[in-house]
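Crash report, auto-generated. Payload:
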Amino acid sequence: KQEVTQIPAALSVPEGENLVLNCSFTDSAIYNLQWFRQDPGKGLTSLLLIQSSQREQTSGRLNASLDKSSGRSTLYIAASQPGDSATYLCAAEGRAAGNKLTFGGGTRVLVKP
Amino acid sequence: ETGVTQSPTHLIKTRGQQVTLRCSSQSGHNTVSWYQQALGQGPQFIFQYYREEENGRGNFPPRFSGLQFPNYSSELNVNALELDDSALYLCASSSGLMTTEAFFGQGTRLTVV
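Recovered output after restart:
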């Protein structure tokens, strides 16, 4: 059974600092790993999708890496802004999950002006 | 704008009642998945529909049921509501079953009193 963990559960940084968000998963037989952003009470916004054959994906200030052998993915957000304050969730899709996404509990980020 | 729309956005039901939630998938997507997100937790997979057939189910009782229509929109039905069913219900659509990006709607906030 796939288990996904995100540590820490909450993070507070001053504006301008780089953010590093961690995601670990127990079953390396994944099809892909996806990062999402969630604002309070809202749905999920897809940020980046990394296929199992890829090592990283980049979009603007966001960069996500994937290391299947160690069961880890990291989301980097460069030069954080107050508008980056949200909860960030990672989700793994894999054979063990039966074609569903298995989510971590999320990291709640606060970027202070 | 992801193109995935859910209705209603909020509703309040009494314990024991039945509820139907609706989801319109993004244009061109034939797969719809439903997730339940309790406050402060990551989403949990309920079930998935692919081309009108159920394709995988999470650890939810039979009183959670679903349907997908020929236009690939979907419904989630919950019978005999319990207080613990209070949550944000999220619908995600994707093209195909695996290795494709999932796009989420804004969710339906269900409160059971």
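Post-recovery validation: The radius of gyration of chain A is 13 Å.
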